[in-house]
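re the bet — no i am not wrong, look at it urself. input seq straight from the record:
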Amino acid sequence: MKKVSIIFVHYSDGIVKSYTGHGCLRRFWQLAAKDSFLEIVVVNNGKKDQHFKEICHKYFDNPSNNFAHARNLGFDNSIGEYVCFVDNDIYPDRMFWYQCRELLEKYPDKKYIATSIWTSPHISKYSKGEIDGHVLNSRSGSNCLFMKRETFLDIGRFDETLPVHQVGVDFCDRQIQKGYLVIHTEPILARDLGIRKFPYGHNL
């Protein structure tokens, strides 16, 4: 079975967001224990939460606190034939990587990136219709993108000269320029916890 590398960058500030990030990573780690084809790569983007080391296969510190560099560092140290860049507030269902991978394998001749974070075609100005019941968009948020390794290399690395809020936008722009569409799994298989304020001790 083809290996999947999850690139997880821990970059949030504050005890609540740190706890949320740890809970999401713990969920990935629990699922990885059941699925041997998964590789969890964590890059600590200048934070002090060293306990993240305990729940991943590979761990790297990124003292520069550069988000794009952290994602590139994670990619460089991953071995999966598929890679998934996730923000540290993404909470996955177990079928998340199965369906994303199946979609890419189902359409090997298409330039697709997969995601399980839902974007409604009715409200998205980037909607491009659908294929076999799956929503297609020309653009999707960069918080949860699943792709072939060669797709990332084709689009190009994250731009380390940009401020953090422009890194994902720039990557999506280049993805569009290269002709890639984002294909969505039918159900929502990963939750974006976003800015929700979980009290410390909340059971994610």
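see?? Residues 4-192 form a domain with the Spore Coat Polysaccharide Biosynthesis Protein SpsA; Chain A fold (CATH 3.90.550.10). told u. also The helical segments are 15-32, 67-76, 95-106, 149-155, 164-177. so pay up
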